[in-house]
Amino acid sequence: MVEGSQIFAVTTNGEVLYTSDGGINWLNKSEGITALLWPHIIRFNNKIYVGGSQVLYESDDQGESWTEISIPVSDTKTISALGKLNGVFYLALGTNVHTSTDNLISWNQNSLENLASIPSLLAHEGSMYATTWGGRYYTSSDNGDNWILTKNQEARTMVQSLLFIESKIIMVTDEGIYQSENDGISWVENNTGFIASTITDLATNENYIFSTNFALGISRSIDNGQTWTTINNGLFNSESHKSMSQIEFYNNKLYALNTGGMFVSDDNGDNWANKFTPNPNDRVIDIDYDNGIFVVGTNDFIYISTDDGTSWNTTSKEGLLPTSYFIQVFIKDTHMVIGNTTGNIYYSNDLGQSWSDITIPASDYYINEIEMENDILYVSTNKGLFLNYGFRQNWEQFTPSDHSPINDITIQNNIIYAASDNGLQVSQLGRNRWYSANEGLKVKIRKLLVTDDQLYAGTDSKGVFKRSLTQLIIPPDDDNDGVSNEDDFCENTPKGIIVNNQGCPLIDGNAISIYTLTPTCRNAANGSIEIASTLEGYDFEINITGEGRDEGFDLVSLDQNFKINDLRSGSYEITVSISAIQYQRIFGITIHEINEISGKSLGIDFKNKTASYVLSGSKQYTVNINGTQEIFTFDTDKDNEIILTNLTSSNTITITGKNECQGIFVDSFSFDEEIIMYPTVTSGLLSLSGNLEACDVKIFNSSGQLLYEEMLAPLASLHLDGYPSGMYIVHAKTNEKTKIFKVIKK
Q1: What pLDDT score was predicted for residue 242?
Q2: Residue 454 pLDDT more than 50?
Q3: Does the pLDDT at position 711 exceed 80?
Q4: Same domain for 463 and 530?
Q5: How far apart are CA 625 and CA 645, in angstroms?
Q6: 179 with 170: CB under 8 angstroms?
Q7: Whole-prediction pTM value?
Q8: Which of 131, 193, 445, 530 could make a disulfide contact with 137, Cβ separation 3.0–4.6 Å?
Q9: Going along 509-569, which residue ranges are E strands?
Q10: Do residues 215 and 338 share a domain?
Q11: In what order do the strands lie in the sheet with 313-314?
Q12: How far apart are CA 687 and CA 685, in angstroms?
């Protein structure tokens, strides 16, 4: 809103800016505004109004403060436009225009059409104009009560605004500019020289530069991009959209693409003819060509033509996702690579008869472009550039330092030029970093083209820029390790060595490993770790901190493994450094305490002379049976069952874990005994067995005090869980005899 040298401006992040000196200095006038705003501001009855998402703000003090006022809240759309005429306030919400004649106290509603929002409300010669979708606008001369439709048959996108110049009406749309000299009855396109729009592709032959864009279709320049003219003859019918997505120059012909098909021109774009039309529900998305073969990607199929586009066949879909939009296609010789909207990448070496999946691991990438140079496959994505050597599943990521998406690349003389969301990025094959080259070009770049030592950049909404390649200099790199001299911390790196961002040899993530050699016993410090490396010839510095330990080791050679002993249980931080190459890596490792083993007898089989136990606390047990050792190994340290066979009449069993500090389990019994009680050393459970029918069981403590007495059946169990640790005497009496057992409770 301009009032002399005073200007109010609205930003979409919810700010109102004010200048009183024609824009030299600006003040923020946003106090009280919390919603995102639509960029419309008007003065009505000495008050200022701005609108946002279902919110209208009012200021009566020149924007010093703002208050939210009531609007027709039944309409849930965003306020898209404001207007005023003859004391009437106009408010656009969705497809409705609301009017107020009583200072915004009450509102009247009029629905224009159920198509799209209304981006502008314009007053002219006593009438209000409301623009909308499809080349349409409405006119009301009775305070918004009734509206008359006017339609531009040539325009099919949103009408952003109207300009009234003498007897002419100028219509500004998403696809260009139109003019009418008879009050909108007929329209002519008025886009000569207009190219400041979103560029979707660039191409060249020996004489011309061509561009495709969202506004004008196809444009041509005969003076290296200084001026442009549209060349759309034959491209569009009444149902076509002028948004062209791609243009290529193959075999002295131009090929252009939109969602409706592929078009060809053999006269530098003066005339166009349809070359390929997909199935009715299919949309053309991408094309490529090599050695007489066309390949076209659509939302359903991959089409291929081997006769210059005269006939078309679909490739095999075996191995491909069933619902894929094939947004990128690439062909070279018999090799084909395709990418879809879900980030999947597929490769075929037989022109699409069969496919293999070479998707970038953990991919959630959007694929923008597929190219090949020097037998290296380049895939531009929203998360940087990826390189593939030999169509395998191994990918190398090359991401700009600002992590901006890479939309397109071109390679000339081993220099990589990348179009990113933040401008132009430049690198060199073999280097591992990008350099920004955005002087005068800090905009999103969609497409790149190199011709006659000039780089052309097709931008997002800003048209085409160009610059000489000689001005795009990459900083010197004397040792050719991919890092410029000014950033190189390690000079004279040997040829072929991969380096980091400081120019020092890049250490593979698996080159150094640290692992627990031994755990520690309980309440002890006898754990140990071991450090190993595949690197040779380096002096390492190693430091360990944690659990009261802070110790460093200098000039350590890892040609042989290095041990650190006497560690308590807990977490440690190990720092491994190589000063000579500015390398450092930090590891975390935990020393665990060794568990004590525990055992329980599951029973003794008198008939087969076997005994069963369940053991916990270790993955390996050494069992001594009457002086003979046997080792049992398991995958877990929880509840492992062992069965001992070939036992003698009298047996002494001792069981230990892998480590001596894990404790011992002891049991003894005789198959000749009428009564057997086991184990003699227990944490609580006792079992009664033997050749008996029933017996009277008494338990005494070491002082001779009777603690328990009960008549028990065969194969009964006793529980000492409630008794304190110590020695107990158990009497088991049958009709024939009494057997006395000494039992240790742990």
Answers
A1: 59
A2: yes
A3: yes
A4: no
A5: 10
A6: yes
A7: 0.49
A8: 131
A9: 512-518, 527-533, 540-546, 549-556, 562-567
A10: yes
A11: 284-290, 293-298, 302-305, 313-314
A12: 7
**H-helix or E-strand spanning residue 524:** none
Burial 223-247 (b: 16+ CB within 10 A, else e): eebeebbbbbeebbeeebebbbbbb
Q: Are 269 and 391 within one domain?
A: yes
| Confidence at residue 239, expressed as pLDDT on a 0 to 100 scale | 46
Q: What is the reported pLDDT for 152?
A: 84
Within a 10 A sphere around the Cβ of 120, how many other Cβ atoms?
21
Tell me the C-alpha distance between 169 and 179, whole Å: 6
Question: Do 688 and 717 touch, CB atoms closer than 8 A?
Answer: yes
pLDDT for the residue 238: 43
Task: Indicate the number of domains in the chain.
Answer: 6
The pLDDT of 392-410, averaged and rounded, is: 85
Residue 498, in any domain of the structure: no
Residues 221 and 75 reside in one and the same domain: no
Furthest-apart CA atoms within the chain: distance in Å: 131
In angstroms, the first-to-last Cα distance of the chain is 90
Question: Does the pLDDT value for residue 7 go beyond 90?
Answer: no
Match 């314009």 to its residue by tokens: 122
Domain of 622, in residue numbers: 607-668
Domain annotation covers residue 490: no
> Which of 198, 191, 193 is CA-nearest to residue 212?
198
The C-alpha atoms of residue 546 and residue 590 are separated, in whole angstroms, by: 10
pLDDT at 195: 54
The answer to whether position 504 is within a domain reads: no
Confidence of residue 540 (pLDDT cuts 50, 70, 90): very high
Q: Give yes or no for residue 363 having a pLDDT over 70.
A: no
* Confidence check: pLDDT of 462 > 60: yes
Is pLDDT at 638 greater than 50 in this prediction?
Answer: yes
Neighbours of 381 (CB within 10 A): 23
Place of tokens 């996108």: 157
- Residue 144: exposed, middle, or buried by beta-carbon count in 10 A (0-12, 13-18, 19+)? buried
Residue 167's pLDDT is: 84
CA-CA distance, 488 to 478, in Å (whole number)?
10
pLDDT category at 529 given cuts 50, 70, 90 is very high
* Pairing assessment for the beta strands 738-745 and 726-733 based on DSSP bridges: antiparallel
- Within 10 angstroms of residue 176's Cβ, the number of other Cβ atoms is 22
Considering the domain boundaries, does residue 494 fall inside one?
Answer: no
Taken as a whole, the chain contains a residue count of 746
- Assess whether 130 and 156 both reside in one domain: yes
pLDDT, averaged across the chain: 84
Do 247 and 149 sit in the same domain of this protein?
no
Token pair, residue 210, equals: 């061509």
Nearest to 688 by CA among 654, 655, 722, 712: 712
